Amino acid sequence: MLRDRGKIKWQSAFFMPEHVKMLHNIGIEDLKVAKPILDEYQIEEFEQNLLLAMEYTYQVKINVWKAGFINEYHGILHRLDEL
Fold it and tell me: 7, 42, 50, 65: which has the highest count of C-beta atoms within 10 A?
């Protein structure tokens, strides 16, 4: 009787490192988000909300866009550095 390995025989056994890296980079590129464009009124509204949050010690959630990804920060503002 002939013993056959079934699916194991037909599965790919080797991926080149370059191929794995390319697949990883493609997955990362799909997750990136376009940089939001804010007008001066939206920026002014954000500044007012931040000043109110500092004055009354409100909890804030700030979303920061960096290199295609949005990072979310939670907390209370104590002081604000404009830079």
Answer: 50
What gap in Å lies between CA 30 and CA 22, rounded to an integer? 12
Q: How far apart are CA 74 and CA 60, in angstroms?
A: 6
Residues in the chain: 83
What are the C-alpha distances in Å from 32 to residues 14, 23, 56, 68?
29, 15, 35, 5
Neighbours of 50 (CB within 10 A): 15
CA-closest candidate to residue 52, choices 73, 76, 71: 76
Helix (H) or strand (E) segment spanning residue 64 = strand 59-66
